[in-house]
Amino acid sequence: MLKVKNSFKKIKAVNPLYILSFAVVIWFIISFLIIPNVNILTTTFFTDKGFSFDAIEKILNSKRAMSSLKNSFILAFSIAITSNIVGIFLVLCTDYFAIKGAKILRLGYSTTLVFGGIVLANGYLFLYGKSGFLTNVLTNIFPDFNESWFVGYPAVLFMMTFACTSLHMIFLRGAISNLDYQTIEAAKNMGASQFYIIRKIIVPSLLPVLFTLTILLFQTGLGALSAPLMVGGKDFQTISPMILTFAQRPSSRDLAALLSIILGAIQLILLLIIMRVERKTNYITGSKVKTKLKKQKINNPIGNAIMHILAWGLFAIYTIPVILILIFSFTDTYSISTGTLSLSSFTLDHYIAILTDSKAYRPFLTSVIYAGLASFIVVVSMLFIARVIQKYRNKLTATLELSLYIPWILPGLLFALGLILTYDKPNWYMFNYVLTGTTIIMLIAYIIVNIPFTMRVIKSAYFAFDESLEDAAKNLGAGGLYTYIRVILPIVLPAALAVFALNFNGHLSDYDLSVFLYHPLYQPLGVVIFNAADETASIDAKAISMVYSVILMGINALVLYLVYGRGNKINTGL
Question: Which pTM does this prediction carry?
Answer without folding.
Answer: 0.81
